[in-house]
Amino acid sequence: MFAVESNPLGRPRLLEWAHRRAAHPTEGSAVDDLLQGKSDTAIAEGRGLPRATVVGIRSFYDQVEPIPRVCDGTACHFSGSTALRERLTTIGPVGGVRCLGHCYAAPAFRSGDRVFARPRRATVESWLAEWGEGPEPLEDLVPVHRESLAEEPVVFRHLVRGAPPADFADYDLPAGEAVLAALEAARLRGRGGAAYPTAAKWKAARDTPAPERWVVANGDEGDPGSYVDRLLLEEDPQAILAGMLACGRAIGARRGVVYIRAEYPRAQASMREAIGAARQAGHLGKPFDVEVISGAGSYVCGEETALLRSIEGLRGEPRPKPPFPAQAGLFGLPTVVQNVETLSIVPWIARTGRGSGTKAVSVSGAVRRPGAFEVSLGIPLRRVLEEGAGGAPAGRRWTMALVGGPMGRVLPERWFDRPLSYEALPGMGHAGVVVLDETVSPRALAEHLFAFARAESCGTCTPCRVGTAQLAALRDRSGLGRLLDTLEMGSLCGFGQGVPRPIRDLLEHFGDAVLP
Amino acid sequence: MSGSGKSPPRADAGSPTLLVDGRVTPAEGSLLEACRAAGVELPAFCHDARLSPGGHCRACLVELDGRTVAACVTPSSPGARVTTDSERLRGYRRDLGELMLAESRPAFEVARTLVAWGADGTRYARRTVEPSRDRSHPYLRIDLGRCILCRRCVRACEEIQGQFVYGIEGRGFDTRLTWGGGPFALSDCVSCGACVTACPTAAITDCDREPAVPAERMVRTTCSYCGVGCQLDVHVAGDQVIRIDGAASPVNRAHLCVKGRYAHGFSRHPERLTTPLVKRNGALVETSWAEALDRVARGLERCRGRRAGLSSSRCTNEENYLFQKWFRAGLGTHDVDCCARVCHAPSAAGMRATLGMGAATNSLEDIERADLLLVVGANVTEAHPVVGARVKQAVLRGAGLLVVDPRRTELATMADLHLRLKPGSNVPLLNAMACVLVEEGLVNRDFLERRVEGWKEFEPFVRSQTPERLDRVTGVPAERVREAARAYGRAERPMMLHGLGVTEHFQGSEGVMLLCNLALLAGAMGRPGTGVNPLRGQNNVQGAADMGCQPDWLTGYASTEDPEALARFERAWGRPLPSLPGRTLPEMYQAARNGEIRALFLFGEDVLQTDPDSNRTREALESLELLVVQEIFLSETAQLAHVVLPGASALEKDGTFTNGERRIQRVRRALDPPGEARADWEILCALMAATGYPQRLRHPGELWQEIGQVAPIFAGVSYPRLEGDGLQWPVVSVDHPGTALLHGESFPRGRASLQRVEYLPSPGLGPGLTLLTGRRLEHYNTGTMTRRTDNLKLVAEDPLEIHPDDARARGIADGDPVVITSANGEARARARVTERVSAGTLFLSFHFPETGTNRLTGEVRDRITGCPEYKVTAVEVRKA
Q: Looking at CA atoms only, how far is residue A62 from chain B in angstroms?
């Protein structure tokens, strides 16, 4: 029997407990059942879940129905996704998806487990013209350009040209205490956006008395404009697994979960393959094993408490903290939730004993050479865009950049010389950059952000549920300001609290062009 | 949170505090609790003190050291500075209110608060929900247009009832409450009303609240359905019950079930008996009280020496006391019994033989203290729904659950182990569990040595009862039995709850003894969270037996064979008591059929529908010279009576009921009896006067002095002391606090006694199908009351549960009308094909007279008490 999560403010969440008997990861969950196309009745009966609960779970996730889906992430949205969608609609029913992580080859769409994106050689128009009867003959692998602008690549140590392949020695790390000491000395902070000290989180989980603990890798990279995590999951899963193993040893966990969003089918396959290989080689299995759990389409599931609920097979709604996952997380047990990028650099830190001042930044939009770049934190954005991404395409002029996705920051071009760092640019989050030029008006970006907020709000708390749906209709700036205040002050989680951030930047820098 | 006995006393100066708007307040619980403790009425729409915090509505935002946080989900931290009112917060609240008005039109407290906040409902376009209203359910009313998605209903349904009816559907602005689609009446709802009590906006309300008739007064009383004894707040206007709320009490903690909360309409039903009736020329006609009483008195006089009475477990302690006193002292016979005979007499007998006292050893509050619940032969969520909800909550919180039942009851679906035994095999199953405890060293040696006798003889016997030897008899794989016994033996606080599935058997009393054996072997007795606890079926069946409505037991369980006790009663009652032993109910029928009894007084019992072998029961009743029935409706049985006396329902009189945990609780008059109907104690006093044994009584409360004199276990009971939560007997003196836990130090018989019971197959078992009978949630026993309420719209007939294999073999499809036949008679029902019953077993309730369930049941009875074996009847079934 599972231990029951004790909520210091009241009684345990009973519904969740009830589900825990049925929804254990190794046996799949109601969310897996949805993805496998099972009916509500079959799920309710098979899992012993109430009917209303199953209806609730199904209606929460938007990537369940297996139809072609056109990406409407920021890069795709401003790179012809509408034309792409119109073209696909002539073939059959088409759905939407917010970010397939192919922002560097926008627009993109997904069909089954394959993702098709515009190849570099083509424009949207020429690409669509190439098609013929349907998209199937198209190539579905558009590689990410990646390079390191830092002195020594850490995140990309196996990914840049000429680098050694994945290092299985990563699995043979020093004992838990030594890893913790190394992380502490390196002052590693989580790379997912919140920048919480990693060692402190691990210790909290280790020191919470419990019969079992969990390690969870957050591979729910939902921010349009970010695709570093996808790159890591697909091309260097060993590093992530080794980081999880190190964490498991450090906190005394026997099991881990890599939660990978449904929009990243290749990442799931690649990670599963890596787990299989690691098990065969004896690195995983006993005493520490890892499994892959798929998301089903919800941006909010990137929030750690929402992510844990999604793993449990429930609606991926965030809950108030405390308790923090390190105290009561997956199945009520102490859980370390760590972004995949963070985990991937843990082995390097543990082995070298050095700190890593780098961050992988993905760049898309109005640049010559979009791709992922490992940079030293503090580098001016313009250097990344010029040295890494090759500057603006001929004849185009940068106006602004969205940094860190729809809860991130909007930087006007004149701010491109500011340093990229958590301190200088609070809210830069995972630091995906979409560079925009004069073809995109500030109002158009605002409307894109409004639509994203409305579509992805989970509905758990009132300010965000209702407020995100009112943003687009407001026609006066003071009214919009009040609504942004309400969202920021009142929302339950970082989503509603973060929605105002880029909109405030837009209002500050482009005021009249956003709302007269 | 404060004041718990265990925490060390803290000096006020040293206890951690925080500042709420500058006021020093203890830093305990959430910030919301701290604010309320400081006297700040912070609105918090999604907060309900009974439920886990949600943090959904964000109305209780406060400033905490400069940040804004939702007070309901933020822990108090010592030294914090909380600001609950500022220009910023006022602006926030107004704006939040305007957002709320964009999605709903809430009522009640929420609407008032939004007005107070100055929220402008025209600021945003209002979303509409279609369809917003659901009125498919007879009691509940839903209007999603009023819903603010605070999820109190969702949590109430989860955390109070454990039903999980509601969910949240969609996301973002399309989020809405769901019950899984379709009309609400077809949802999993059990109509307990917990959601109604939780909803702050009238999005979910009920038929008793929606009309908003103001109540003139509120009366606290005790529910008159099952033996749980829920406390009710009855809201009354004029001569009508407006609505019933659950009261905060240790029994029901403000929760109720569909019967207690909603099934009150019967009291004003047009079919209520409002005048006495007498039989003239074969027909019952209205008459005066004078004539009716005279006819009863003369009839009883004519049948002197050949008269008997059956008291009513539905009526009060005071009435039961009067009834048996009248029969024993006034009419000179011990021929007085009550319906405990047909339900829990085996519990009393079995526990008395083993422990020395025949009542629940522990209290309902122990359900939360137990770490394992063993439920044997009890469908708790239907027959005792409020206890069922408590069991579910305990299990959801992590308590282990073992269920022994031939049927897959709701609790069985939640159990760690469901031992699905063959009907009638309790004895071998329980023996096998005891064997495992002994074999695997799971007995509490210390407890056995100090408090139990008979071990030496018991041990070799029980070692022979291996699960492997008995699994063909019970149908339960030996390994399951071992697992269950291990779980019970290893639990720190294992608590047993049992029902009529144990008692209503050929070896009913012996089955109860075996439950006691298990508890004694494990040392699970005399401690909180343990014990053997019969779930009493009728509201006052405990009290009827306590008051002496059994032939061989006087008030307070004094034996009619105890000369000292007899002398005490004779002194108090001023009459010599008969020396002949009395007859039990089945013996009374037998005596009626052979002429030894000529007059029978049935007090509030519809025996034609409840007692086994209805055809034979009818024969007995029709052979009488005088049949008096005191009733509130003209029941099947009353139609045979020579005189029918119109009594009062529990809403219409004063008195007390005693629930299954021995808790004596007040019953208070909320309404007047209709027409000329009278409170039953008044009728009994009139009858006592008319038969020459007058009882002076102005109010039932006066009787307790006398009851306390004759029965020491009630010596300290008086109405003033029953105010509040009542008293659990024994209450041996006026300053005794009552007894929540029996057998803490010793047993009434000194040492408890392990019982060796050999299994004897019931003579009722046949080669074909076996019928079980029992209750359904929506109806109560013969349905006299519940069929006269809208519960009828929820369930309108007794369905016959039949396993798909058995149905297929007989060409029966779900919904087909079927005829069930036994050696005794036949019954009719519609088939419900379900795996809730196992192959070879049928289940039928007995709520509807047209079904005729008890025409099937037979003469097999418990070997010790004569309790009928309702749970095993050999039958066959065919398509009608």
A: 10
